[in-house]
Amino acid sequence: MPEITLTVRLSPSALDSRRGVVRLHPEVLDALGLEPWAGVRLTGARVSAALAAEGDGPPGVVLLDDITMSNIGVTEGGEVVVAPAEVAPARTLTLSGSRLAAASLSPETVRLALTGKILTVGDAVSLLPQDLAPAPGSDVTAVRGTLSRAIGMTWTNELLTVTASEPSGAVAVHPSTVVGWRDGARTGEPAAAAALAGPGGSVVLPEPQQVDVDPVVVPSAAPPPVCDLIGAKDATDRLTEWFDLAFKRPELLTALGTTAQLGVLLTGPEGVGKATVVRSVAHAAEAEVVELAAPTLAALEPNAGAARLSAAIESATSRTPAVLLLTDIDALLPATSPPPIATVVIETLRAAVRNPGFAVVATSAHPEAVDPRVRGVDLLDRSVSVPLPDARTRVDLLRVLLRDVPVESDVDFGVLSERTPGFVAADLIALRREAAVRAAVRAAAAITFADLTDALSTVRPTSLSTSDNLQTGGLTLDQVGDMKEVKQSLEETVLWPLRYPDSFARLGVEPPRGVLLYGPPGCGKTFLVRALAGTGQLNVIAVKGAELMDKWVGESERAVRELFRRAAEAAPAMVFLDEVDALAPRRGQSSDSGVADRVVAALLTELDGVEPMRDVVVLGATNRPELIDPALLRPGRLERLVYVPPPDADARTDILKAAARNTPLAPDVNLAELAASLDGYSAADCAALVREAALTAMRESLEAAEVTAAHVARARDSVRASLDPAQLASLEAYAKSR
């Protein structure tokens, strides 16, 4: 049976949300031999099934909703193995849910909502208005009204859990399926009215029922050997040492007056391989791994989540030595607003970690977001981190990942490593998969270097979102005309610390942490940042100052912390703060209840961090430098101030040539003479002039073959100089005073 490993992405379609539908590229459907709306088996941390439909995502991606991701125990950016599913009609289906749901929902209503869905035991399913489609003899309006009265308007968030089915495996719900509540009414049977109706018609809740859900046991032969875990040596060494003491030499700890209990919090960026490290080290220690995805537990009804955790612990303690691997624990036990189940989970884990021959290892990409009780001395009292791979580590990772893959001799791992800043192991695996798909489309026998580099247009680092990731477009500083002093200053500040770290260390020089670019609008500040990032192969996280401002107390500061955390995960990276004067104005002069002052304080805290930012530089850009809080411009912060002046005649000539690179010009168009006459024009104005001249030619004739001097002259009537002489004089005076 064919199967393909794909990268998980959250489906953007509201129509697919919580409906058990996955979207696959048509090429993937063909490769699996599937027709649209056939059943697929999804294997992550656990196995589930769903309906497959065509999607418009890349071939290497599967689009899932949040419930389906929870059902298979993966998060966005993780991997899932997709294969055709053998789906049988469900003869019976047993469900559990909240006491309120079991008391107020008839089995017939549940069957109506689930008809057509593909389910497996242990799945969470949601009731949605669109799923209550009219069925023979059903009054959908009455059903929805009953749900709203009994559960409230939030009944669409109600989650049920599949506890049993006949036959087992993946089943499809049909109108003839016998659906019922665990130890409750089933379709075709009258509900126990006494159990449902109280005085005055109120709903009386039955006693909660225990939910039996089998835990997931990860096969010990699945993980790679420890020697292949490139870049995780510190984590593997320490886990190996701890497992050895806890599992094989507990008597030594007892003799020294302590216990062998072991609880570990394993941290690191998303996709860096935290769970793989645990599986591999546990396999080497001959320990069983029982794995649970914390987001899955968080999505379940509290009773079902607690039952699944207890079942996993019971399964693990019966297989000692064993490790309970709880991935993404911050989703279940957040530091802020913990769910009601949090206390039960913590107490359950505290009791479990005392068992001999048993360890609890939890992973998190956001350790600061984990409930502090988790890191107590009686639970996860030890921690270790898997770092972001640097360029040298990525070379070794690529060699291991492509070791058993046919590749052409032209593949240059060093160049590929330089072009993948911020990539973690999961991203490189996705890159390998995308390159393999491209090679397969060509029916090639091996992956070429071009396949890998072309795949970079699709695969982006997990740590970066498409919304704030500034694309370089292949620009480099060599393509920036004139501005020699500006380019030199930026190279020294941003690129030298990355290229020559030994020289900085030898001379005892601390690299600058930030740069402020200031100058008139439209003079190329953002263009310079893109070119700088392209030259240094840096990831750029770009935000406008106003985008981080939020009216809710604490949210703006949280956004600043999150921005710098993501930059650290994507290193080498630049944080580009456009319109930084809106983000960090002079303190004490705003009328926003102190929001701006708190944001400035948060920004200064990040720049002055106890641990220096590694391979992360901050660039700010503004037209109004005098409005920025002076504390931000002191040494150790945005200490290098670089004035980006308006272009002179020579620079305007270069800009016009670049803007007209793909525009055919008539012989009577002299760009040098034109540039000399454009005093007061910014770089953006010059580019707009070329664009308007081309449009003028098109208005004259859609068959126009070139742009003439007459077209340029008419375009000048529309595109005027935008530089304000007063603002320009103020900026030049500011530059002279620095």
UniProtKB/TrEMBL annotation:
Residue ranges constituting the CDC48 domain according to the UniProt record: 104-188
Kinase is among the record's keywords: no
UniProt xrefs under Pfam families: AAA, AAA_lid_3, CDC48_N
GO terms of molecular function: ATP binding; ATP hydrolysis activity
Keyword annotations: ATP-binding, Nucleotide-binding, Repeat
Keyword hit for Signal: no
Domain spans labelled AAA+ ATPase: 260-390, 511-648
GO CC annotations on file: cytoplasm
InterPro entries, per database record: AAA+_ATPase (IPR003593), AAA_ATPase_domain (IPR050168), AAA_lid_3 (IPR041569), Asp_de-COase-like_dom_sf (IPR009010), ATPase_AAA_core (IPR003959), ATPase_AAA_CS (IPR003960), Cdc48_dom2 (IPR004201), CDC4_N-term_subdom (IPR003338)
Annotated ranges, domain CDC48 N-terminal subdomain: 5-87
Superkingdom of the organism of origin: Bacteria
Family: Belongs to the AAA ATPase family.
Name assigned to this protein: Transitional endoplasmic reticulum ATPase
Species of provenance: Actinophytocola algeriensis
